[in-house]
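Response to reviewer comment R2.3. The reviewers asked that we include at least one raw input/output pair. We reproduce the pair for Calcium-dependent phosphotriesterase here without editing.
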Amino acid sequence: MLQLNPLSITVYFALSAGAFAQPLGTVSPLAQICGPPSSVVCIKKYASVMPYHFFREPSYNGSYEDIYPSTMVPNDTSWGLVRKADFLVFDQARGLDLLGPSPSYEYVFEVNNAVHEAPVYSPVTNKLYFSQLRGTKSPPGFLPQLVVNLNVDPPELGELISDPYMPQMAERSTTSVIYWGVSGGNNSIGGIEERPSIATLDPLTNKTVTLLNNYFGYYFNTVDDLFVHDNGDIFFTDPQYSWFNALTDRAPQLETASYRFTPSTGAVSVINDDIVQPNGIAIAPVVAGCPRTVYISDTGAIAGTTQQSLGPQGTEFNTTCKRTIYAFDLSANCKHLLNKRPVYLAQDWVPDGLKVAANGYIVTRAGKGVDVLDSDGTLLVRVQTNFTVQNFAWTGANYEDLWIVGNSGVARVKWALEGQVLK
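Raw output as returned:
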């Protein structure tokens, strides 16, 4: 039987009576401007003790997109700064350092409200390529990639249709080619059959070559995200979102999993199969004396039905399900993932668009923003956007400009955090 001491009884009745007695450790104020510019707002002590009665709305089986600024904190007037900020700084020393002296957020292009994914920068052409799930479809049956030309000022937005045509995603670039994770699948897309696959695009000739399109005869579910290791192996994730989002005419044939593909031999090996919906995947830079770290995000909080008889049913969002980034050590022979451990539970929506900066910081999209974490998963800075983010990519000679793409918008962040230079 639980027994309450007299002090506990007093506090209980005080709260029951509607009194606003606050814990002695309450953080006040929760937020304050710490720029310049004024759009940089610091969260004091991570707002670890909020004044009552605060409340953040969860979602269990709907499409509600929770965002941190939507938390109701009626007893702290500084919380209004959080809703207006472009940059939320949680670790002031490291956060302000990565932002630099004059960070900026610019909403550059308005696009349709469909999902815009997989931006990839080509240093060969100085252009940013990204995909869309709904566009002009001109010519009929085709869905062009979008291209931001960074050779002109201001940048210009155009379209690209590869030869032969590949639907859906562009993912990673090297100095010479772009690697595409092709997510859609249909037996006739503009007269061409296409299945979830991995392909390359030569940005100078616009020619594509398919590298992989099956696992021992089975269709992949959704070749969603990938990175190319220094040895040429391609690590990729295969969730079920193509079926959920009606991008394929076939229900899933394989379990969700992550794989390693060796283009030189054609061999494909599973590297993880215990993540509900593996989505983002990224590798940390080389650190002397340490194994390389691979990160994979689980976005199982957004899922739907896989039963073919019901057809694609869309997705629902449940805040109590998986929305976590996991870290793994890459084995010495670069073939296996070891020592799985969680490093970050997304504070908004689900973590995706996963990448690692040149200094080892983890960067992930999460709802209406982009989160920057240290290598242990501590949140340092959040870039807040005015649209739902799907993915992002660094561009420019020093890989300092971050371009963000998503539902209804394309934005550019200028800061001091550099991306990895791709080989």
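Confidence is low (pLDDT under 50) at residues 1-18. The helical segments are 6-16, 80-84, 92-99, 241-244. Further pairs are available on request from the corresponding author.
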